[in-house]
Amino acid sequence: MADTTASSLDLYAKVEDLLGVKEAGPALYAHYLLFLNSIEFESLLDVGCGSGDFLRQMQAALEIPEVKGIDLSPLMASRTAEQGFDAECIDLCAVKGQYDVITAVFDMLNYLDKKALERFFGCVKAHLTEGGHFLCDINTLYGFENVAVGAYIVDDDTRFLTIDSDFEQGEYRSEFTLFEKEGSRFQKSQETITQYYHTVEEIVELSGLELVQRDEVMLYDLEEADKLFLVFRKV
Question: Which CATH number applies to 6-141+198-233?
Fold first, then answer.
């Protein structure tokens, strides 16, 4: 994953609950569930599985025979495994076998630059069954410019987090600074995470897959969609 090391992913894992992701999740997951409920499939691989909440909700609703989660963050993969799922800290290209459905939830594709995205889709196609579906969501330009940019400060009893973010020339950079309480002292961690804006047309061209559905998603009650939900099929 370009510009995103395991250490930065693990830092994100430590503060994910402070960022409102879990609160926004159900509204986004509904788009995935609605589509998955309309097709027949036996296996699902979730790339960038995070803490496993998406897999847990999909499995509870659909009772999928075979599910697996992978994440480049060891901490995230372990959290998914703790929920009882087959989960590994492994790159998609190293996964064995094929799946009827592959998902990449909560703007995972935006963490990949163009070169990494092309490689990623090569691996998606290799691990999708014929006629299988790839489901993802991406940040819109409006979302990058109006939701993500700026300063953000939040804390709880043991953590103090600041995020400073900027979006220029198609790149969104956010500097995370975390202070964690350890006894009477605070331990400081700092990482920079980069995301990249991609148009749907660029993704279609890089994917080599057929785009079969495109839905606008508004998670934050704004004037325009901050995300797009996309469904591709391997033909």
Answer: 3.40.50.150
How confident is the model at residue 59, as a pLDDT?
A: 97
Q: How far is CA 93 from CA 31, 77, 119, 120, 139, in A?
A: 26, 16, 9, 8, 24
| Tens digits of residue pLDDT in 123-146 | 999 999 999 999 999 999 999 998
Structure tokens at 230: 């996309």
For the chain, counts of helices (H) and of strands (E): 7, 11
Architecture of the domain made up of 144-195: Single Sheet (2.20)
Q: How far apart are CA 158 and CA 233, in angstroms?
A: 45
Give the residue among 19, 1, 47, 2 at the shortest CA–CA distance from 176: 19
Residue 111's SS3 state is helix
Q: How do the domains of the chain map onto residue ranges?
A: 6-141+198-233, 144-195
Sign of the alpha-carbon dihedral angle for 51, 36, 204, 128: positive
Our CA dihedral for 55, 59, 64, 65, rounded to 10 degrees, sits at 90
Q: Which of the residues in the chain have pLDDT under 50?
A: 1-4
Digit-coded pLDDT (tens) for 160-189: 999 999 999 999 999 999 999 988 888 999
